[in-house]
Amino acid sequence: xxxxxxxPLISTGAEEPRNDPRWVRTExxxxxKDRFEREETDPQREDLGPxxxxxxxxxxxxxxxxxxxxxxxxxxxxxxxxxxxxxRHPLEFANGAIEARIRLGAGDDFTMxxxxxxxxxVHAGHLSLTRWTLKDVTMTDAKTGIFDLAxxxxxxxxxxxxxxxxxxxxxxxxxxxxxxxxxxHTVLVVFEGDEMRVSLDGKAVGAHRSxxxxxxxxxxxxFLVSKSAELDxxxxxxxxxx
Length: 242
Known about the structure:
Helices cover 12% and strands 40% of the residues. The protein has helices spanning 20-27, 56-59, 149-156, 162-169, and strands at 29-34, 53-54, 66-68, 73-76, 85-93, 96-103, 110-115, 126-132, 136-141, 172-176, 184-192, 195-200, 203-209, 218-225, 228-238.
């Protein structure tokens, strides 16, 4: 009778895909959370809570653009505003993640803008952007792309060289996804080294590698809304290096 033959397991070298929502919760250090379960002290002005600021004073002539409403933030760009609404909160990580629930309507968009206001080589602190619409999500390395001061100067001078266009194109990736108008969705953005990964409602959507994502001091999150959006359940984690 032949002895049973035991075959060795063969490794393909491929790394097991990471379940980011689970990894963030089990390995991450929660730095901040806000469910906005409070009332405004003065309905005539923006009073979002400790740590939160907005751009309404400088960009919308002081008109109110953000309100606490029913346990979430209602964000609506005022007609006189000369820029998207910016709702800001400090953070501090190299590797980290931010999760939020968002609700969009037709024509709306919602951008997570990560910044370091102490970095002198970029315009307005811009490091990276994650822009959600009802049909897709776009990830952009702004630090070494569109908001790098030297590259921005070339663009402002009207340069459209193939070299510059190719460089900027490599800094951005867009992935299809489907958000239902008027329905809450959970979005998650993870930074790990030079990679940004995004998930929607617990499922991976896409990933992008670019050197600017590895910036060691992400100090500020700016939620940017060009028309209107609703925001709830914000959580920020610091993540271990792998």
